[in-house]
Specification:
Elements (H helix, E strand, L loop, with lengths): L4 E6 L4 E6 L40 E4 L4 E4 L2 E2 H7 L2 H10 L5 H12 L6 H8 L7 H15 L9 H27 L12 H10 L10 H14 L6 H10 L5 H12 L7 H12 L5 H9 L18 H17 L4 H13 L2 H5 L6 H12 L6 H21 L36
Antiparallel strand pairs: 1-2, 3-4, 4-5
The protein binds carboxymethyl coenzyme *A (CMC).
Amino acid sequence: MAENTLTITDNRTGQMYTVPVENGTIRAMSLRQIKTGPDDFGLMTYDPAFMNTASCRSSITYIDGDKGILRYRGYPIEVLAERCTFLEVAYLLLFGELPNQGELKTWVYDITHHTMLHEATKKFMEGFRYDSHPMGMFVSTVAALSSVYPEARDIHDAENRMHQIVRLIGKVPSIAALSYRHNVGFPYVYPDNDLSYTENFMNMLWRMVEPKYVANPVLSRALDILFILHADHEQNCGTNAMRSVGSAQTDPYLSLASAASALAGPLHGGANEEVLKMLDEIGTKDNVPAFIKKVKDGHGKLMGFGHRIYKNYDPRAKIIKWSSEQVFEVTGRNPKLDIALELERIALEDDYFNKRKLYPNVDFYSGIMYQAMGFPPAMFTVLFAIARTVGWLAQWQELVNDPEQKIARPRQIYTGYDQREFIPMEKRAAASVPAR
Ligand code: CMC
């Protein structure tokens, strides 16, 4: 018998089946042949929340959650964060190789020259309520770009796809900055092509009456590092949304808006905002033990802790902790850091968190750093979305070019009624469902 196979005995029928094992995985469709009789549909797997199901082959990002390893295209995240710029990493994620000097120059030029928003998009954003959540504005405006660039629907044309990718990476900081300016009631600042990706973003956020915005180099580099850390993270909830919606051959603007919608949730990218709310609620270091007790008693979660894949310290959280020290030298120490450090210290010594392998994730320290840099908490997830746009697009390209991919369409286990006799209106009793 071939070595790379799995033999299954169906105890319902006594039949044996041999199915191939490849990359430590069996194909779910191999199970379909396992039937109790000719009318049986065949065996399926049940995996709510994809706890043990691979949905694609990918060569973009590698994570070993037990060892706390994260690599983009084979390069450790620590090396990329220290040695590269965000746009260099974006090139790596999208094209598979680090750019040489000439390639990087052209790439940066292309992105820089697609940062401007169509005036119609600006007007569209002016229609949002003054206090709209920036993530709601971000998602809706990215979706609205689909109406500005209708040619994006031709997803089979590689050149056209790349054009939309460059547009999206160029424009997401402009949308993010405009949503911030809208909240604070300041006029839109147009992009400045002399500045780097993060410097220009800071210019669009914070320039007031000065003729030229000059970013603090420590802060713009720290933001660049944060963007590198958030650029991709293999098949998480948002990326799965990108791939799932993209599998219907939906254009990249609408697909990316779906991915960003998933990211907005508090269990995903929205956690960084929640961490700040939690630190506010705790108030002082002395209240940390009582808060931890509350969490252990089942009242809420320790936001910024735990991960589906990492059962070890999230390597991104380590880099953020290191980078935040440089930021605090410029901005002054965020007093919330002491509460966070105390939370981490107590949680890491506690059996509840140890047994469940709950460690700080990327969102635990990022918010404290963003706040020190001047971002309001409602903007934190938008910052995550700017960076993750690159990963979503790299994953989308991979999906479109993968001959094995089809429209994503899960199965279900039906738990409802069998066929029922129709009840005419006059014979219907009051339904025992809650009144609306
Ligand atoms: N605080 C307290 N208990 C927790 C936490 C937490 N942050 N996270 C998980 N647990 C407990 C959970 O209650 C469960 O306990 P029990 O076994 O007694 O039922 C156990 O740990 C396993 O948790 P789970 O919910 O089954 O794990 P999951 O893989 O489904 O969820 C998670 C992963 C990230 C959604 C979850 O850890 C969580 O909600 N964390 C807080 C939110 C957060 O920080 N999210 C950001 C994730 S990283 C960035 C990103 O993805 O965008």
